[in-house]
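thread from #wetlab-drylab

HS: before we spend reagent money on co-crystallization trials with fe (ii) ion, can we at least see a predicted complex? here's what I'd submit
DV: go for it
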Amino acid sequence: MITLLSHLTHVEIATPDVEASVAFYLERIGLREVAREDGKVYLRSWGDYTHHSVALSEGPEPALVEMGWRTTSPEALDEAARRVEDVGVTGEWSDGGPGRGRSYVFTGPWGHTIRLAWEVEQYEADEANASIFPDRPERRSSVAGAPRNLDHVTIAASDVRAFAEWHQDVLGFRIMAYTVLDEAPITVFAVITTNEKSHDLGIVLDSSSRPGRINHYAFWVDTREELLIAADVLMENGTDIEYGPSIHGIGEQSFLYFRDPSGLRIEVNTGGYRNYVPDWKPKDWKPSTGSNSIYRNGAMPMSMTESFPPDEGRPTATEEGVYPGTEEALLNPYAVPGRG
Ligand SMILES: [Fe+2]
């Protein structure tokens, strides 16, 4: 198969209070607003090459509306759409909207909507926002710890391996690693990628009854020092850190998790390996081998198992500590057995 996809371009999320979310992303994270159209607000990190990387729209709950990848060519876009339809999924062609041209939008077997486009607007800042450096799409943010660009999305799906394999077979993602529980042969996490990063799409096991959920999405900073500054700045301005800063075993990225005003989880990450091996064979990690925390010395907070929108009728992990009626191991797959 030719390489179909090049990189993650954007994520659109729903939030009950768009203006509260916009204010948070601008003031606390350091994104910049570039457009408003049809009720959507378009935001970008200073180093994103495309028009925007985040779109916010109003919805009753925090949720994933769509995530987008750029294809490698116009032909790759047509080929990707053909391959999606060959496996029985019917999408739609669209004129693309702000910052992009013709695109193919489909909802996959696990309920997640993906937009594929070749034509994207390469961002060029106006004079007030222009960088002094030729390759930067705009000048660096003046917010301390502001991310350079969008990095990845992690969704929740009821069958982690089937989701990973579908995206490998249909769209050419490489499967990079799995996490299997220590206690049982249950795959609870996977990372897949369209490029040299360990992942631009992560998958956590979803035990809820709601399709199409998101666990978090992530921005990139260039250095671990910036990540630590981001954590400090967030805390000093009233945003609790949910988990981290630490380092994932899988992918070896430094990470930091917190919540936006809708409750949606945001990650900032940096570092990690680059992998160019075209026939890479994914290995099985376990929580005890450091899949989530490379230091193997602490359990992930239970709140990290929440995905969005919340599972109807169930209290959130934050409210109850653990979902009722479900084994803790399944819901906290990254806990280190006997520790934490
Ligand atoms: Fe992540």
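DV: The chain has a mean pLDDT of 92.
HS: ok that's useful, forwarding to the group
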